Amino acid sequence: MGRYWQAALYNPGGFGEEFRALRLPTGAVVAMAGLAAILWWMGPDWMVWSAAAVLPLTMVGFALVHAYAAHAGKGVSWLTLMYVLWIVLDPVKWVWVGCVVIDAFVDFRARWAGPTGKGSDGV
Predict the structure, then answer these.
(1) How many angstroms separate the CA atoms of 59 and 51, rounded?
(2) Separation of alpha carbons 115 and 42, rounded Å
(3) Domain residue ranges in the chain
């Protein structure tokens, strides 16, 4: 929230670009996903901690969805639908995190940018 306020004051519109570019290093993504899976299989007492382990991945998932919406020209209604699905359906949350894990290796944003080089690694 603080970063949004700072961007609103000093760089209007900059927060959206930064948020859509949000990524985690591949090692961090694999470690968090692995930790979440281990905690999940340890039993009901540990499932809450599993959710805590995937929280950063969920935030990156929000950034990935917003990046796709910006790339594909999807509107606010599409983003609203994605958020409603995320809130209502638990399997969507795991698909969301799965897409972040895949993105750590594939870098969807760079592929969407194409040969113009506007992606994170210019592919």
Answers:
(1) 12
(2) 45
(3) 25-114
- pLDDT surpasses 50 at 106: yes
Are the beta carbons of 85 and 65 closer than 8 angstroms?
Answer: no
pLDDT at 79 over 70: yes
Q: What is the DSSP string of 34-92?
A: HHHHHHHHT-GGGHHHHHHHHHHHHHHHHHHHHHHHHHHT--HHHHHHHHHHHHH-HHH
- The model's pTM: 0.79
Helix axes of 47-72 and 26-41: crossing angle, nearest 10 degrees: 140
How far is residue 65's CA from residue 108's CA, in Å, rounded to a whole number? 11
By the 8 A CB rule, do 93 and 58 touch? yes
111 phi and psi angles, rounded to 5 deg:
-70, -35
Q: Which helix (H) or strand (E) holds 123?
A: none
Rounded Cα–Cα distance for residues 21 and 113 (Å)? 12
Residue pair 110/30 in contact (Cβ under 8 Å)? The answer is: no
